[in-house]
Fold this sequence. Notes:
The protein is 26% helix and 18% strand. The chain is an alpha+beta fold. Helix 4 packs antiparallel against helix 5, helix 5 packs antiparallel against helix 6 and helix 9 crosses helix 11. The protein is globular, with a radius of gyration of 27 Å. 55% of the residues are buried. The site of ligand 9MR has 13 residues, from loops. Keywords: Carbohydrate metabolism, Cellulose degradation, Glycosidase, Hydrolase, Polysaccharide degradation, Signal.
Amino acid sequence: MPIQCIPMPLWERSRKFAILSAAVTLTGVAAVAVAVPALADEVEQVVNGGFDSTTDPFWSSAGMPMTLAEGKVCVDVPGGTVNRWDVAIGQNDIELIAGESYRFSFDASGTAGKVVRAITGLAVAPYDTYFENSPVLGDTQHYEYTFTANASTEQAQVAFQLGGSADPWQFCLDNVSLLGGVPPEVYVPDTGPRVRVNQVAYLPNGPKAATVVTEATAALPWQLKNAAGAVVAQGSTAPRGVDASSGQNVHTINFKNFSRRGTGYTLTADGETSRPFDIGVDAYKKLRTDALKFFYTQRSGIEILDALRPGYARPAGHVDVAPNQGDGNVPCQPGVCDYTLDVTGGWYDAGDHGKYVVNAGISVWQLLNEYERLPASRKLSLTIPESGNRTPDLLDEVRWELDFMLAMQVPAGKPFAGMAHHKIHDKEWTGLPLLPSQDPQPRELHPVSTAATLNLAATAAQAARIYKTFDPAYAAQALAAARTAYAAAKANPDKIASPDDGVGGGTYSDNKVVDDFYWAAAELFITTGEKQYQADILASPEHTADVFGAGAFDWGYTAAAGRLDLALLPNKLPGLAAVRQSVVAGAEKYLAQQQAHPYGVGYAPANNMWDWGSSSIVLNNLVVLAAAHDLTGKAKYKDGVLTGIDYIFGRNALNISYVTGYGEVSAQNQHSRWYARQLDPNLPNPPPGTLAGGPNSSIQDPVAQEKLKGCVGQFCYIDDIGSWATNELTINWNAPISWVSAWVADQN
Ligand code: 9MR
């Protein structure tokens, strides 16, 4: 048979179609087959998958001949290749029908520890991948996966990609099958025991509550046991009826009167025993640091050192080293500007390689706010290259991003001088996995926007007051940039980033900027005390509006960030009593939602439609409760924060902690091009302390659409790397887990 190579990376594709994975995940959220009638006859698509006396019609890459031995096919895989697709075995001319389910199975063995990337995909450009899995090999094993095709084609292939190894190895294959017309797999999440707790820790003197999923309508007895299994407290559950956010009938358990510190506690009710948890504060002291250490590993433009992050070392991304095209000399999209900018550095926004000023803004704001509001954060060692200098590590880390934001400002003398470019990212979407240093795409600056400019104004104004003690020149530079940006935004109040500009990166389109004006004016006023900014605050419609909506603040709505800072930081704005009262009123709203919620969630989205990044919204609403506590000293707001975190750490419908490495079962496979262990066992999972986006009712990605169709609220989440709509990681989500865990760590 003709030998055929796969010339292009199969993952050089729009991420919309890059991945369909049916893998059983590390968290135990497993795909479970449920018996449903087959749609049609089951039809084998692969010819001669048993390699009976010939290898035809399979092909292999040039220089890697197939040999038949003991009824299977084997190859000597050459060493020294770079990409997985550099050497492969496969079969072409396979027909797939969109919407039909297929069972892809094979027996494989290989040199221990080597990896095969088994795919079903398009055999011709643009090489879409319909399904992939990358098992680690050893002795012969049977592998079997079911997926549903999302396209029809007569030009599909099954292929076994074997490249990327420095040293040569051996691979053998048998019984390759792609069976069409099989029953689709019904995804049923493995939610473990029906007693749901904060799997990390309850604070000794804090509230302590759990949720029991049960058919029972009358109260049930519960028991709290210590690590030795002895009953240390008991009581009766409170039936709460059907919870709208999950559709489950639930009871709650209140065990706040038990306060003895310890590890390995469990709660038992209705014949089920919860996952273990601690009573203590230490985990939050660790998390406040881990959540901040996340930002170093997101850095662009610098090598990540193994000495500082064992297991996470990688070369510098987007410096001018091939195949990167580098961020040192980036032009605009065609027709947008006639200059280039050096925008090296900053943090990668998320699992993509883009850098976006609006999302940089809210993230920087929140971390600098942590610095201002929670003084213990100033002393944390984040184990970063700058550790040990005389500047607090938190400020050094944030400066990495601030410098990037400042570099995104249009230079004097150019059209729209003083405005900020909305974003910089790849020209086309790339697939996964892809280390930042391996991204071959050209980078482009996108048009300026009023929102980005005001994000720069707000955060540079914040920086001006915060960095003053450590670097007065930098503080002055930041203040000048903030003033210039604010004036430029006032002169160009309607430069809205296009909601259609979403190829190669996200849009972050923000069509309402009155909130950003208010926030920027607030930060400039707090820093300078000047009347011009005071006048703008008082004239803003946001100043008297209820800014505490379903979610308090996010990249798209920033008024509450301004309101919180006016209420809590020293300033002489007239009418501060009303400003502070408005924060307390916002907190009352979230507290009432939380008290009505049997999982203790102070987030009640309209029509139970959970937002993209809901984990961060739940946390940001807790920031408002924390603010109310700090303003009034009232314990009910503090208890609200402590109750609210339980949901994040496992007291939820899925029984999962949304923070990697925290809790017995936690999110591990967040969508990322470089923490892509689910796709390549040689890569790491996200570092401990990484927050997953969480339930998103709109399930925009294909994995969520295949697995979660019809999901109710809290169930709209899957810990799969392909689910970018429910399971990404981002800088603006790790900022709130950092802020809230830091606040909690300070409470005991
Ligand atoms: O978090 C963002 C969410 O609020 C938006 O609805 C969504 C669509 O624009 O984009 C999300 O942000 C993504 C960004 O556009 C690109 N980097 C990854 C971000 C998280 O998914």
